[in-house]
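Shape is hard to put into words, and the shape of a protein is harder than most. The fold becomes a row of whole numbers, each drawn from a learned catalogue of backbone shapes. The outcome of that step, for a single protein, is printed below.
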Amino acid sequence: MRTSPVPAPALMIAAVLSVQFGAAFAQTQFDAVGPTGAALLRLIFGALILLVAVRPKVRGWKREQWAAAAVLGIALAGMNTLIYLAIGEIPIGVAVTLEFTGPLLLALVQTRRLADAAWALLAFAGVALLGLDDGSDLSLAGILFALGAGAFWVVYIVFSARVGRLVPGVEGLAVSMAIGAVIALPLGASAAAGGALASPLVLPVFVVVAVLSSALPYGLEMLALRRLSTRVFGVLSALGPAVAALAGLLVLGQALGLREILALLLVTAASVGVTVGVRRRPSPGAGAPPPAAP
């Protein structure tokens, strides 16, 4: 199987940048479509883009392939809807920080090397520092939404790797995203339709959001997961809270304080450290699936 010439860690970093800036752009339309409408439009357009691009051949799929794609679709619907509900209640940097506790715990549980554990703990220190509030009250609903998104993110990591192994290319991802859009339909249909009718900018904005937040990053992550273990994937995802804070500054005007800057340095250092470690260790092999999570 031919492998991408781009290193797997670089694919992951590009995916993180894309998804967090896409989420920030989506938040600019919350007044028009609300969080659930935004999540639905992101999934619909993301699915349409992938379905047209890859044209998955599902006629010969086996039950195992459909089952894995369905679970991944559920994870996509839950993760996208809950994180949008969270950033509608609390700042995007804090929401993504709390969401990241899911994959970070997965990385810590799966680690087998002291160096990996050290980098994961350094990333956790940065995440914890970024998540500390300046004394203002955070919405309990927003916190719970973000933690729920983190739980779905763990399912996404595990089943993205599984679907990537069972289905060639990103065909499985396209089908899973379509399933996710169907699942999210009851929650977001009325809000999405009302916003689209009220503003001519809504649909073009969410086409861009779908590319940045769904089609591009999920495709990059699935390709990366073919050559990275899920624990290394989890630590590299530590860039997420830092990039979310940066996107909040540039897109939403949310200023960074000294605490946030220090957190960015800690999380970035952990990500660089694990990336260097991946380059020094032999990869799982082109096209080989990462080890399944327990």
